[in-house]
Amino acid sequence: MIKEQKALFIIFGGTGDLAQRKLYPSIFELYKKGYLKRNFAIIGTARRPWTNDYYREIVKDSIDGMYDSEQTAIAFSNHFYYQSHNVTDTSHYVTLRQLAEKLDGKYEIGGNRLFYLAMSPRFFGTICEHLKSQELKTTTGYNRVIVEKPFGRDFASATILNNEISQSFPEDDVFRIDHYLGKEMVQNIAAIRFGNSIFNAMWNNRYISNIQVTLSEALGVEERAGYYETAGALRDMIQNHMLQIVALLTMSAPVSFTDADIRNAKINALKCLKVYTKDEVKENFVRGQYDSGRNLPAYRQEDQTAPDSMTETFVAGKLLINTMDMAGVPIYVRTGKRLATKATRIDVVFKQVPNNVFADNDLRHDVLTITVDPEPSLRLQLNSKTIGQGYDFDTHRLNLDYKLSEEQKKSVPEAYEKLILDALKGKASNFTHWKELQYSWKFVDAIRQAWDDNVDQVVFPNYPCGEMGPDTSEKLLAKDGNHWEFTI
Ligand code: NAD
């Protein structure tokens, strides 16, 4: 059921790329669907001296092609107000508060505020402090803050950032966004696991041989090289998106499907993630950096990268979650740039039956594949009898496929739309809890430290553009007698 939400959005970084490409189109979708109708307003802030009219034109441009009539676009953009604002200038928060109070009254919002920090995390602390000290938080409605990634660059810096935010906002009001958690098939993991006896019964070390997660990108670093040089694939993808997916794949059944219980289940899974020693990092993690290939430049030739850069653009690793159900199941993960294709895919490889009664036939592992991107789909690979007379009793591979219909595809919301609606409703399970981050960073820091000490003595670059990473990624699985199910 669609229930209208009342809220005043205050977006810090309102002129930025994220706001224009993701936030305004997502908010417009919520408007078209009736989640936002009359009782809402958006204040966009940034340093530039824009007028309301100019800002509304930018908003209209950002939803170009999404509306049926000019009237709808104008009615929507009229809810937007621009406030020139330097986040470090206290006096600007006074003006912002006055505008917020005025709009709260005009649109009868009742004091509900959603602060969206769509700018560099180095400003999060000062913004949150001012929101509290300059009384932008109301006493009549909710006050929630959505923060963008990256949340720190290691455990120590994430802790400092979290301490700064928590001076002004309690944990329940902090919505740390990870847009992978807004994706349809990522959310489907819980339904598949906990809604079906077959998978519920088999989702453990007695039946699962290994789990594989691939988050591959075909693009290079593009215009993000400046940031990427200081981050690398480990911080940019493994610490957040990958570990969140791993938590959903390995958590024990939540007591109920409430925010608190789901988050507890995920926190416990990440708590049981084995943190590696340096030698274990060498054994269980490999890194790569793309070389030129297919007429594309090497990472070291990109703008804003060092000619001898040691930043990894590829990571593959084996994770172990030491819970009663998952201990001993290798969880292989890999992510990288300039790989053969863009895809987000999960393969759950089940063990073979203990005794093959079809003596002349090789039985294969059953595999459940959950494709998140680009086309949400499910596939279950089974062994089945080859159809027809005249054959001996042969078995062959049978694929049970589920793909979304064209109609269903149209109804899939963009991840940001879904997550913004969750935040409006106060639903926090698809946002990262601070405790999850703590365990994630501790795990990642151990790998980073080992690599900074060059335990693996890697030589970069080590894979050409357009392949699925360096050879060492294949070898990592081969050591255990496994292989990547997802090949191009
Ligand atoms: P951007 O550089 O395009 O925008 C930054 C915004 O902050 C601009 O509106 C700028 O005017 C404003 N700003 C900078 N300094 C300011 C100051 N002192 N006072 C007031 N405003 C100031 O950045 P972006 O790509 O929109 O990213 C914003 C955040 O979202 C970053 O944390 C980024 O890591 C994160 N993020 C972005 C994307 C994306 O697709 N763009 C994806 C994931 C996460």
Biggest sheet strand line-up:
8-10-11-7-12-13-14-15
Our Rg estimate from Cα atoms comes to 24 Å
- Span from first to last CA? 42 Å
Return the CATH architecture of the largest domain.
2-Layer Sandwich
Bound small molecules, deduplicated: nicotinamide-adenine-dinucleotide
Helicity level, as a percent range?
A: 25-40%
Dominant shape: globular
CATH C-level of the largest domain: Alpha Beta
With helices defined by DSSP (H or I, 4 residues minimum), what is the helix count?
15
| CATH homologous superfamily annotation of the largest domain | Dihydrodipicolinate Reductase, domain 2
User: What percentage of amino acids are in beta strands?
Assistant: 15-25%
CATH topology of the largest domain: Dihydrodipicolinate Reductase, domain 2
Number of strands: 16
Average per-residue pLDDT, rounded, comes to: 96
Low-confidence segments, given as residue ranges, are none
Q: How can the largest sheet be summarized?
A: 8 strands, mixed
Which structural category do the helix and sheet elements fall into? alpha/beta
Number of domains: 2
Organism: Ligilactobacillus ubinensis
Protein name: Glucose-6-phosphate 1-dehydrogenase
Domain Glucose-6-phosphate dehydrogenase C-terminal: 191-485
Catalytic activity: D-glucose 6-phosphate + NADP(+) = 6-phospho-D-glucono-1,5-lactone + NADPH + H(+)
Task: Please describe the structure with a list of short key phrases separated by commas or semicolons.
single chain, 488 residues, alpha/beta, Rossmann fold, Dihydrodipicolinate Reductase, domain 2, 8-stranded mixed β-sheet, 6-stranded parallel β-sheet, binds nicotinamide-adenine-dinucleotide
